[in-house]
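Troubleshooting entry. The earlier prediction with NAP gave an output that would not parse, so I re-checked the input for stray whitespace and re-submitted. Clean input:
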Amino acid sequence: MRPYIICHMITSIDGRLHPSRFTAAAAGISTDALRGHYETVADQFEAEGWIVGRMTMSEMAKGQERTVSAVTPIERTPYVANRNGRNLAIAIDPSGRLHYGRDNIGGDHIVAVLGEQVSDAYLSELWEDGVSYVFAGPKGDDLSLAMAQLASVFGVKKLLLEGGGRINGSFLRQRLIDEFSTLIYPGIDGLAGTPSIVDWDGGDDDQRPGAGQALRLIACETLEGGMVWLRHAVEPAPAV
Ligand SMILES: NC(=O)c1ccc[n+]([C@@H]2O[C@H](COP(=O)([O-])OP(=O)(O)OC[C@H]3O[C@@H](n4cnc5c(N)ncnc54)[C@H](OP(=O)(O)O)[C@@H]3O)[C@@H](O)[C@H]2O)c1
């Protein structure tokens, strides 16, 4: 069993990822009110944590790389530090590139999802920081395995997947998204090639990461300032 996973994102009307690039709010509309919807809506789901890709977490994890004498050998099994009842801040970091220097992001307990090939020294650093971890197979790309461990080890039943586009693409490709919650900001980016909210970069093996899946609109609401909140359930595509 794995947790129910909701991909919760804010996007311009052209599906782009970077709010700083969106056109200005129209006269009389508060940018702060528009941006504030993201956390307000996220809270409504009452999820037990959130998941982000390595790039997105690097904007929040501000620890310094340092040399830690490794306790060796360290078994590649899940490690649970002191969660203390907190929600989880989960980073998909297959190569162990992130450095935390603390055990939380904004009060949520950090859990690293790693590949088994990370060094014992890196795992020792996470121990020192009080960071928990699970493994996503030898290369860190078996996201199903990692999600199942989060459910069995931490007992979580519902998680938000909060980007960026590449990790969202990998979750979609591995059929791990149960629902999309999309906030459509009344603005546009417009530049060709700008990242979008789902950006599978898996090469040639499958150019359609959503193949075999279908979306069903389950809710649509207009929020203050003209933000549109869409919810889509992800289902198996009907047989043709
Ligand atoms: N609009 C929004 O709501 C929103 C939300 C979140 C983020 N963002 C923005 O999005 C940007 C980052 O997006 P991004 O797409 O470049 O990066 P990302 O999805 O945050 O992270 C990508 C990284 O995740 C790891 N990864 C990817 N696929 C994986 C797989 N199958 N298994 C294991 N690990 C995998 C890889 O790490 P390695 O390279 O280490 O292998 C990859 O480089 C940031 O600028 C952020 O501000 C916007």
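This one parsed fine. The radius of gyration is 19 Å.
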